[in-house]
Amino acid sequence: MAKIDRIKELIGFLKILFATFVAIDVSLIAWIAKNYQVNSSFFNFSAWLLIIIFSIAIVVDVKAILSNIRRLEEL
Fold this sequence. Notes:
The protein has two helices and no strands. The protein has 75 residues and is mostly helical. The protein has one domain (3-74).
């Protein structure tokens, strides 16, 4: 497999990860907005922690996608 094809496959995989992270992040935000009064503080804290973790993962994933696109442009 050529180097260009490997980078394209990596970008495709990273796009799938990005979509998954965004879906989970949005779902957690919607869940906490709907149930913040009903839940215990432990669940609210856990949900906020996961939101932060997935938001960081989104940023890291976007940076990886952009760096691979730059590598692809250089070839």
